[in-house]
Amino acid sequence: MFSSAIAYTGLIIAYALYRWKKWHTKSRLPLPPGPKKLPLVGNLFQLPTSFEWETYAHWSEVYNSDILHVDAAGTSIIIVNSHQVAMDLFEKRSAIYSSRALTTMIQELIKFDWLFGFMAYGEPWKERRKLFQQHFHPLDTATYQPKEQEYVHKLLKALNRTPENFIEHIRHAIGAITITIAYGLDLKPVNDPYIEIAEQALIGLGAGAVPGAFLVDSIPILKYVPSWFPGAGFKRKAAFWRKWATMLVEVPFEAAQKEIASGTAKPSFVSACFNDLDESKDVEAQKIVIRDTAGNFFVGGADTSVSSINTFILQMTRNPEIQAKAQAELDRVLGPNTLPTFADEPSLPYIAAIVKEVLRWHAVTPLGVPHYLTEDDEYNGYFLPMGSIVAGNVWAILHDKNDYPDPLVFRPERFLTPDGTQLDHNVRDPLAAFGFGRRVCPGKHMATSMLYIAIASILAVFDISKAVDEEGNIIEPTGEYVSSLVSHPKPFKCSIKPRSEDAEKLISSL
Ligand code: HEM
After folding, report:
1. Per-domain residue ranges for the chain?
2. Which residues bind heme per the record (predicted)?
3. DSSP track, 350-399
4. Which of 40, 175, 249, 504 is disulfide-compatible with 295, CB 3.0–4.6 A?
5. Which among 119, 304, 455 is the best mutation to test ligand 1's pocket, defined by most ligand atoms within 8 Å of the CB?
6. Fold of the domain built from segment(s) 2-508
């Protein structure tokens, strides 16, 4: 055991030395500012291990720079802390800022190599992203809005039955929307096997994607260590997670394929792609690309959207006056006891402002999904080395007080004109929530429409307030969040009750 620890340590030092020498001898320009680096380990012992985005935002003030550089034992990391730098690098220089750092754990051991959201920039990524955008186009609202509305109505019924399980109901509804849009499959109201597979697979992805969690990502040669070897627990974990990752990409796709073959398939992303198969080319190869691409819907769309809806519930619990304003708008525009449709969206500016503020106030992916720099670059007199991980600090950008005064306050009015009657287009849209450049979230239209219909429908029929314990004491939600790639509110309690008897009848009639 002791000798294997020495061997691992030796490997880390050799690797760190190699990486460090490589990017310190290349340019006479300085790296962007950041905390002082120690030999070999760089900033490894200064790097924050949770809520990194807040520390990085603070370092921007300390070092008076909206671009920072840190060195994690030989891994070069650039942090982009402002909208301007994000545009300059991710958008204007997108040809070299659009890759992803591949990790041995995610791609090779857990085998999420089919997930285009985590692929390097290149042909396989382009092919899959193009297919996704071609058959899941923002303007083709018929491909996603009816399903969103249908499952949001099911969500209202579930919330009415067992409101205390709201987190579970929201997870189920959003998971069902993404799976049914991707594959056209019917899902069970509870304990659905497709959702179970997808959620299990996400656990592996979440754990495997934590930077620095697995040594094999710094020293890829360790992947050859046999599973029984001391310290090779990562191999056993990877084997377990690989099972779910493979099921996620294969099981729903095979079910959809069967329905297409038997002529019973409902319209979906997969069925649209099958209609477009080019018989003059390799059909099996095309099916693999369709299969891989469909697997991105749940992974990209479910956990992220669930986080935002839970943030909305949390904010309604804490801010009754915002809720009352939103309900007044709904009652005025729709009439009482009427559920909203997508046609009502332009007439509901306060609801639109809540959607924006939910996305801004808590960045679902606070450091985005980091990009990877594929060539040496120079920016504002700094050297940016090829092979750097480049993280857009979405949290910092959405909490920039120049764009959003009092950034920590949840205030939908910031997105409205002073008279509150319409959206103020001079206020920066919180689009950074969806990332940047060529990798920008291709599901953002679905995400925002899902948020709109869920928020407007829930507020039309329910009152959300603080829960009360058995002794009658009010339970204050802590408002704490989990620190991870996709950041969620920690589970909290609240009360969700129909606004009136008529509202309850309306829900029951769905
Ligand atoms: C509130 C909801 C959502 C948020 C906050 C969100 C955010 C993001 C972010 C930050 C990225 C990385 C962008 C970058 O690399 O700069 C991303 C990528 C992605 N998102 Fe979303 N997303 C959401 C919903 C969705 C939905 C509903 C879908 C699918 C239907 C989806 C599919 C994807 C895919 C496939 C990628 C990978 C893109 C690529 O690497 O080329 N997302 N998303």
Report:
1. 2-508
2. 441
3. HHHHHHHHHHHHS-SSTT-S-EE--S-EEETTEEE-TT-EEEE-HHHHHT
4. 249
5. 304
6. Cytochrome p450 (1.10.630)
